What we know:
Blueprint: E1 6-10, E2 13-17, E3 25-29, E4 36-40, E5 43-49, E6 54-61, E7 66-75, E8 84-86, E9 91-95, E10 104-109, E11 115-120, E12 133-135, E13 141-144, E14 148-151, E15 157-160, E16 167-170, E17 176-180, E18 184-188, E19 194-199, E20 206-210, E21 213-219, E22 228-234, E23 258-261, E24 266-271, E25 276-281, E26 286-287, E27 291-292
Antiparallel strand pairs: 1-2, 2-3, 4-5, 5-6, 6-7, 8-9, 9-10, 10-11, 12-13, 13-14, 14-15, 16-17, 17-18, 18-19, 20-21, 21-22, 23-24, 24-25, 25-26, 25-27
Amino acid sequence: PDASGLYVAFGAAVSRFDLDGTGETAVVTVDRDVLALFVREGVLYVFDPDRYVYSNFVSVRLSDRTTLAASSSIYGMSKPGSLSFAPTLGFVFGRDSGLSPSDLHRLTINPDSTFGGQKDSPYHGDYPDASRTFVSPDETFVLDDSGTIYRASDMSYAGSLGSAFADLDFVPGGGMLVLKGSSLLVAYDAAFNETGRFALASAASRLFISGSTAVVFGPSPDGGADSIVTARIDLSQLAPRSLLPAVNPQGLKYTPSQIIMGPDNVLYRFERMRGNVFRWSVADRSYLDPIPLSG
């Protein structure tokens, strides 16, 4: 949607509706079933698949439904449902299908609504494959559902959420909410630090943020394919994970999972079994207070 209406694809045909769902107007019909569409400054951009790993884009001026530009043989951005749009940057991001190694790709949309060059990430399969991409509201980052975070400007690696997820939406004012698996909501702040969790009572597959409320959708366990269960969760219900008990390492027999020398001349010893980081002062040759981890 945009401020003027809703744009919906029915197979290869795209229609506009008023925001209340009435008043259908045909906009454009492309060659194959539409996989993605975006609106920017009065122009509709439509994506449909072509042969093998190629795809097509068409731009249409909405005021008179005139086709402004068409581009075929867009390479690599062919995975259904993978496209996301950064309208200010003028970038469309997507994942490929049928290529090895898998990669993140980017298409440039020029200010005159024509299509510019393409680029893929510098990594070419170094990070996990994915099916969907998500652009942050400030267009600084693009994430995919493998949990990998890239910088939108150059697709360089920016971090990871630690695991794959099913869906994501951004929270007004910063941060985001992620559906991991089918029953766990995890909240992150704008720096991708986890801030809270909430276990759903039933399985979900999609989530959306409306103000301070998360709305999740999933199939009914006792219904047919068209039966849907929804739940509304206030974001204040997402609570941080509690810390495990602090353990005194003095005289304790243990094997560290990892040891790191910090810049403060302290050895940090991660003890996975007890969920603590034991700290050893090299200067004092003694233990400092441990750091308990969350459970």
